[in-house]
């Protein structure tokens, strides 16, 4: 499933980041790498940004970027 489809509060692990190398490295520097546990804290209406929690870090991700991050729900 893609990150943009993840419901608020559900934990997931990042499986793949479908970005070019430079953008992927930038996301990894912010704490979003393959294997990282994430959850959606809140989202804007429509196609606005999403607030994520990755470990102890909170960050905002654009909706169109969240559509390129594949995740797997965690139990």
Shape: globular
What is the averaged pLDDT score? 92
Instruction: Work out the helix count.
Output: 2
Order of helices and strands: EHEEEHE
CATH topology: SH3 type barrels
Q: How big is the Rg? A: 11 Å
Tell me the number of structural domains. Answer: 1
Derived structural class: alpha+beta
DSSP summary, beta strand count: 5
**Name given to the CATH architecture:** Roll
Biggest sheet layout: 5 strands, antiparallel
Task: Give structural attributes.
75 residues, SH3 type barrels, five-stranded antiparallel β-sheet, globular
What does this structure look like?
With 75 residues, the protein is α+β, with helices and mostly antiparallel strands. It has a single domain, classed as Ferrous iron transport protein A (FeoA) (SH3 type barrels), CATH 2.30.30.90. 17% of the residues lie in helices and 39% in strands. It is built from two helices and five strands. It has a five-stranded antiparallel β-sheet. A hairpin with a 2-residue loop joins β3 and β4. The chain is globular.
């Amino acid at each position: 499933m893609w990150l943009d489809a993840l419901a608020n509060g559900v934990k997931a692990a990042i499986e793949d980041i479908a970005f070019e190398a430079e953008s992927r490295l930038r996301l990894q520097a912010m704490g979003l790498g393959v294997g990282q546990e994430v959850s959606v804290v809140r989202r804007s209406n429509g196609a606005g940004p999403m607030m994520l929690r990755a470990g102890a870090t909170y960050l905002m991700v654009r909706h169109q970027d969240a559509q390129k991050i594949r995740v797997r729900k965690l139990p």
